[in-house]
Amino acid sequence: MLKRIFLLFLVVNVLSACSLGAQQTKTEKEYKIGILLSDSGLGDESFNDSAFRGLERARDEFGILFDYKEAPDGDFEEKLTELVEEEYDLIIGLGFSVKEALEKVAKEHPNQQFMIIDEVSELENVVSLTFKEYEGSFLVGMVAAMKSTTGKIGFIGGFDVPVINHFKAGYIQGAKYVNPNVEVLVEYANSFGDATLGGAIAEKQIAAGADFIYPAAGFTGFGALQTAQKLGKLAAGVDSDQFFVAEKAVTTSMLKNIDVAMYDIAKELKETGKIGSSTYVLGLSENGVGLADIRVVQLSDAENSQLEEAKEKIISGDITVEME
Q: What is residue 161's DSSP assignment?
C-alpha cells in the first residue's frame, strides 16, 4: 500500500514538474526589438522620441526588451547589421531615409524579420508601416485657415520627398476647404536637424505675410515654432504634441501616433510570436493620426462643428484627402 502511494506521489510530481517546465519554457521567451532611429536621433521632441515612448511602454507593461541605435553619420547599414548580430526578433528602421540600407541588409539576412516605418518595401521579410499624414494635416490646415487674419499661412518641409509632401498636401487641402482663397507659402529646409535654419525660414514666411506656420521637419521645425512664438504668430506642431516647445504659439499638433503603433506592434509580437501583416496603413479611423488639444486660440462653436464634421467625413470616405 505504501509502495502504491509512493508511486502515485512520484507520478503526480513528475507530471507537475513537466507542466511547470512547460510553463517556464513558455514564459522564458523574451522578445527583443531593435530600432534604428531616424536622422535626427533621440531627443528630437518629435518622431524618434514618440517611437521610443511606445517601446518603453511595451517594456514596462509586458516585458518586451528593446534597444536602439543612432546613425548621425548616415551609416545605416552598419547599425542595422549590428542589430542583426545582436539577434533581435524584430528590427525596425525608422524613417524613409533608411530604406535602401534596410533592404540591402534584409536581403543578406532573409530569416530576420524587419519593419520599415514611413516607407513601403516589397521584400518578404520586411513589414511596411505607413501613416496617412495627409488626413491629420487636413485638420491642421482647417485650423490654420480659420485663425489666419492675413489669408497667408506657411508650410516648412524637412525635404522635398513623398512622405513630407503628404503633410503639405493635406495641409493645403484642409486650409482651402475652409478658405478657397488662402495662400500657402511652401519652403523646404533640406534638413531635419537644423533648428536655426527652421527659425530663419519661418521668419522669412512671416515677413511675407504668413501668420500661421506648420513645419514637418523634425528638429528643424523646433526652431520654426519658437520663431513663430517670438514674432507673435501661430503655429502647429507635428508628430508629437509640441505645445511645450512654444506655448504661446502652438495651437495644436498633428499627432502621428508612432508611439501607439510601436506599442501595438510589440504587443502583437509578444502575443503571437510574429508580425502577422506585411503592410500597415494608419489614418484617422485607425487612430494612427489625429489632432492634439486646441490651445492658445479658441474655436467658435461653428468652427468646432466644422472641424468635427470634416473628421467624420474623412473617416467615412465622404471627403477624400489626396496624398499629393
A: S
By CB neighbour count within 10 A (0-12 exposed, 13-18 middle, 19+ buried), where does 110 fall?
Answer: exposed
Angle between helix axes 133-147 and 301-316 (nearest 10 degrees) is 160
Domains of the chain by start residue, with CATH: 31-131+259-282 (3.40.50.2300), 133-256+294-316 (3.40.50.2300)
Is this prediction's pTM over 0.70? yes
Gap between the Cα atoms of 125 and 236, Å rounded: 37
Q: CA 140, CA 178: separation in Å to the nearest integer? A: 11
Cβ 197 vs Cβ 188: under 8 Å: no
pLDDT tens string 103-117: 999 999 999 999 999
Over range 46-50, report the average pLDDT: 85
Which residue type sits at 248? K
Strand locations in the chain (E):
32-36, 65-69, 90-94, 113-117, 126-131, 152-157, 183-188, 212-216, 234-239, 250-256, 279-282, 289-291
Please tell me the distance from the alpha carbon of residue 305 to that of residue 310, in angstroms, as a whole number: 8
With CA atoms as reference, report the closest residue to 234 among 206, 259, 262. 206
